[in-house]
Amino acid sequence: MAKLMKDMARPYAGLFSIALVIALLGRIGLWVMDMTGTIAYDYISASGVALLDVVCSILTGSAFIAFVFAGSLALVLSTAGVVLYGYLTRKGGIPARPATAFLWGWATAFVAFVCLMIVANGILSGVQVASMSSKMPSLPVMVAGIIAFAAFIGTLLAAASMAVHACIVRSGSACSLTRNLLLATVGCGFVVMLLTVGTFSALNSMSVSVPYVLGWLAADLAANAAIVAGSWHVAQKG
User: Fold this and answer.
1) Residue 234: how many other CB atoms lie within 10 Å
2) Is the model's pTM score more than 0.90?
3) What is the DSSP letter of 58?
4) Separation between Cα atoms, residue 42 and residue 105, nearest integer Å
5) Cα–Cα distance between 65 and 51 in angstroms, integer?
6) For the segment 61-108, what is each residue's pLDDT rounded down to a tens digit?
7) What CA–CA distance (Å, rounded) separates 21 from 25?
């Protein structure tokens, strides 16, 4: 296991470094916009509405574009991590394992979240950050929450990585690879879509029920684990 992780470490380190450089450049650009008055801040926050409505209410036009950039960077990094895993574990490449898929999925999710926070920190003004910080839990709790959230997203990226690996292993040509990827996207994507809708609805409410949210998260984890196991089984047959 240690050798497999070491063999994959340099390519993933390169990927993470590229993403972090982009995030830092974006943060510098936002600082310049702040100093020149290009970016505007909205201090009005809605109350008595769903969670995401409160968050989105503080985004003005320019801040919204910056937020889209931050989210896009996190999504691109996550997608690139899955593609990189499939490339590294292709036929004749580094052996694929569910454990390495999860560990690199977790690492990718964590770095994506860090990149998101780097840019997001430049979207909000100092007044907004101070106001939000006063309502946040303690730093250890926040760190634990970030790690747990990254681990949760990591299982999803592990499922996607193993599915891509299985598609590559079972393909004999570019045409068959395209077909396999399309079928995997339809089948696995439908399950993920249903669970995402349920989880989103549980989180985005005026009164969040912790047991209800945890129930959906447990279903997400179970589905992701099932996709990992199923993809691993299919890959072994290939």
Assistant:
1) 18
2) no
3) T
4) 35
5) 20
6) 777 888 889 899 999 999 999 999 999 998 778 899 999 999 999 999
7) 6
